Amino acid sequence: MSLERTSRYMSLILRHKPEVIGIQLDEHGWANVEELIAGIAKTQEFNRDILELIVRTDEKQRYSFNEDGTLIRANQGHSIPVDVELKEMQPPETLWHGTGEKYVASIDQQGLNPRTRLYVHLSKDRETAKKVGQRHGKPVLYLVKAEEMYNDGYRFYRSENGVWLTKEVPVKYLERKSK
């Protein structure tokens, strides 16, 4: 059993397709832990200990339990409409977005859009954005003028794991940077 592969499968279920194991998420993205365990255990070795290990050791802190541990959800990155109860926050002066070289022409023309997700994901520092960009090929970094956007009326949220989220980033707030 690969924890990484199981974590990716959980991510698919909790962010995009809960129906693949026959469960439903509530309006806030929460899934019943026992139903999740039972659904995943139909195809691979999976139990509460493995689930807790994945949540505890996930370097991106993708998942959260509710207070009594009966529910679990992905912290962000959903493509299905859920309200993960993000609190609006004033962002720092600048944030970062890492992407692959193949997306540069589109971003330079249209800005950042969430595409299949509910929000655009932004990083608090250059190094994190670079790691994100590397997952998409040769990385390209954009500096986001977040404070200026906020002052112009755009809303920002910070997820449980520190990822900054917003609905879009128009071109005028982006500055392409060399790695």
Keywords:
2 domains, 179 residues, 9 strands, single chain, RNA_2'-PTrans_KptA, Arc Repressor Mutant, subunit A, ADP-ribosylation fold, three-stranded antiparallel sheet, elongated
Write a compact overview of the structure shown:
Keywords: NAD, Transferase. With 179 residues, this protein is an alpha+beta fold. It is 30% helix and 18% strand.
Descriptive account of the structure:
With 179 residues, the chain is an alpha+beta fold. Strand 7 and strand 8 form a beta hairpin. It is built from 6 helices and 9 strands; from the N terminus they run αβααβββαβαβαβββ. Strands 1-3-2 form a 3-stranded antiparallel beta sheet. Helix content is 30%, strand content 18%. The chain is elongated, with a radius of gyration of 17 Å. The protein folds into 2 domains: 3-74, Arc Repressor Mutant, subunit A, CATH 1.10.10.970; 95-177, ADP-ribosylation fold, CATH 3.20.170.30.
Give the distance, in angstroms, between the N- and C-terminal Cα atoms.
Answer: 36 Å
Regions with pLDDT < 50 over 5+ consecutive residues?
none
Helix content: 25-40%
Q: Which architecture of the largest domain does the CATH hierarchy give at level 2?
A: Alpha-Beta Barrel
> In the CATH scheme, what's the topology name of the largest domain?
ADP-ribosylation fold
User: How many E-type strands?
Assistant: 9
CA-atom Rg in angstroms: 17 Å
Taking the sheet with the most strands, its summary is: 3 strands, antiparallel
Order of helices and strands: HEHHEEEHEHEHEEE
Structural class computed from helices and strand pairing: alpha+beta
User: What is the count of helical runs?
Assistant: 6
Strand residue percentage: 15-25%
Give average pLDDT, whole number: 93
Overall tally of domains: 2
The global form is: elongated
